[in-house]
């Protein structure tokens, strides 16, 4: 039944909406209460802040008022909707008067993540030109992008350390300068607006976005929010727009995204309003005082109520004591998670205080439904006008109504020597010295230095997630033409001092070196894939390398790359020196600046970084934050040795406290093994089955056989031969996991495959009851060549899969003969390389 206006008001009252007050200030006493009193904010408890008067100066307000008087309801509703460049063509703006576009984590010109900087400029100009040709009120687009550690979407840009490293630097002026450089690099490629700074205060290091926060204590975000905002935007002026080369920021994700239970992304913060204010409000007042033009609402919830629908947070608090005059944008289809909403319709979010809905791929039906809801009165026109005024105000301040774009196209600023030098300085200042026994550091530049580990010469791994692609995967050094790997920086520093540097990824050597530097750590990830169950650093290869080098009598320096502190006691014990390098980005020479001394072995630069996250004593991953009851870290918040401040580290306990591998929601068959709790099952035509133990590689009636093969490494693949004697399946099964969040994030089932014998009939790929037909894919693949395929989780859901309790994340079904080899079965991100084959009934 179609929801009427009165029905909506009643439903929204029950869900915490504010329907009675439509001014720029707080909601009045008539505002409906939140659904749960535990998620209803009391404005009297909150501190005060205020957007600068220059944000809403009389000249700006007069301009906006006059412009709005000429805008149609269609044009006004268009200002509330934002589409992703991967899902909208420029010419569609002639029909749909949208006010904003964005380039999401895996969106790029022509779907090419390695597009040139000029391609990015051309894309921006094409969209703007079409928007400018529209009849009517002539409101320009605002084009946003996630420039979260530099302009990380564009090949050749400067990639700064992620925020976790910058937090260790404790240097607000450095942060301001990084904001200036980032804004300029974004502006020269044609974008107008960045979704940053991130002001999350991560309280559970198992969260996959922990590295996007400056530290576990809000003091760092408080000290950085203002400088970063001013770096990006410059000072707001009453007499004109932002200075050339500056762009609007968007403080995110409001609120408590770093406080979700068990560190689950888009999860629920369970806590008091006092904790919400004292910990998670963090840097937002400082960003507002500095004039931040927008704020992004969080996916997450407070005591079960989604922030995107909580009017007491978005309206009563943000427009009341916090005095924010900019606009609020939602996160990626976050509105669709509100009760009673979908990605295509959500009046509740607008009524609660969201001014612009980020609707990357749902923008068209969302625009049409929102327009209908405004016309019917479900969404009051006064609320629409309020949101439009806020958006237009920011567009005026951003200079979008000005014809000139003085820095656009000046691509010499992208990855410029000045910006690279700044990034290198940031790397130096972010390093934290955990251990330095026997004075192994600094290393004399004239020494014979062995550099070990595949990560040493991998700029992509050093840069982490949100680098060219959403998850930061698939990058090579060629994608960083202005960058330098850690290995390259070490080689340069050692050879400049007359020494000899040798790169040996596997740790082997012919001539015994004076010292070895082992570079290792986490591989790139972003949200969803970054969420983990424990903080145990699982790969054993680096530990074995450290042990072998120590056994050979070679002093060892461990350089650990990670987006969070991890339990690495065995690695620390096997190292003479241990350095937390976090995710340093594209200027690996900054690591060498501190590790490699001069020819006499004197430091060229000292360590100055200190831990902004407490280092764990065990691997369980339980929240570990300064000030909490029973606080007992391995290395405390603020810890950090230096050459001037040495210290001894005793042998550490190697009892991890972890007895199993956890649920492993994203890895099923990796490096030749089925990752616990997942196991392989072969099923015959009669429905009988048995777990595969590698030794018993035949299904009960011979419908499918299996053998171990080599792929990326020895015995890293499995070959399955279906006999054609009737239906048979190969499946991975285990403890049920919830993949609904991953589906919302457009994650995909990814695996490598090789067709050894073409299918003689249909072959189905299934996931937990939903199947798709991959026959044509396999028939079209060349024989005996490895390929990778990604099938979106949403495709399996559309085919009937239940994603909230997935026990079988991978299944192959065939009745006729086919021989197929597979390896590396896991979830992967959608980097414009996914498919969605036709659904089939199972």
Please outline the helices and strands.
Layout (H helix, E strand, L loop, with lengths): L4 H10 L43 H12 L3 H7 L1 E4 L15 E4 L13 H16 L9 E4 L17 H7 L2 H17 L4 E2 L23 H16 L16 E5 L13 E2 L3 H8 L3 H6 L4 E4 L3 E2 L2 E2 L4 H7 L9 E3 L17 H6 L4 E2 L4 H14 L4 H17 L19 H14 L1 E5 L11 E5 L6 H5 L22 H11 L3 E5 L10 E7 L19 H11 L4 E6 L7 H5 L3 E6 L6 H7 L71 E4 L2 E2 L4 E5 L5 E3 L12 E6 L7 E6 L5 E6 L6 H5 L3 E10 L5 E5 L2 E4 L1 H6 L5 E7 H6 L11 E5 L3 E11 L10 E2 L2
Parallel strand pairs: 1-2, 1-11, 2-3, 3-4, 5-7, 6-8, 7-10, 13-14, 13-15, 15-16, 16-17
Antiparallel strand pairs: 8-9, 12-17, 18-19, 18-30, 20-21, 20-24, 22-23, 23-30, 24-29, 25-28, 25-30, 26-27, 26-29, 27-31
Helix pairs in contact: 2-13, 3-12, 5-14, 6-7, 6-14, 14-19, 16-19
Explain what the structure shows:
The protein starts with a helix and ends with a strand. By secondary structure, it is of the alpha/beta class. It contains 22 helices and 31 strands. Strand 26 and strand 27 (770-773) form a beta hairpin. Strands 18, 19, 22, 23, 25, 28 and 30 form a seven-stranded antiparallel β-sheet that branches. Strands 21-20-24-29-26-27-31 form a seven-stranded antiparallel β-sheet. Mean pLDDT is 91; it is low at 1-34 and 685-701.
